[in-house]
Design brief:
Elements (H helix, E strand, L loop, with lengths): L9 H17 L5 E5 L7 H5 L10 E8 L2 E7 L1 H7 L1
């Protein structure tokens, strides 16, 4: 069993949220960015409907909807390759 098989970890979600908040604070004109996924910030259920296995989603696209409100989406380089 890997760490990704465990349920979502609130500490990981909190850490990701704080990291994203600080990033957007330092980049006020940005609408989105891509960062590495923090193990535990998504549950397997949140990713299992996606095209590839969970371990193929090492990235997260973070979009700021408004200050304090952000959307996170698991992201993989395989999505880009499949569009080619």
């Amino acid at each position: 069993m890997s760490a990704d098989d465990l349920p979502v970890c609130s500490a990981a979600v909190d850490r990701a949220s704080e990291y994203d908040r600080l990033w957007f604070e330092k980049h006020p004109g940005a609408a989105s960015y891509v960062r590495r996924r923090i193990v535990g910030e998504f549950s397997r259920m949140e990713i299992e409907d996606l095209r590839w296995p969970m371990d193929k989603y090492p990235l997260v696209e973070v979009t700021q909807i408004e200050p304090g409100l952000r959307a996170r989406r698991p992201f993989t380089h395989l999505e880009i390759l499949s569009m080619s």
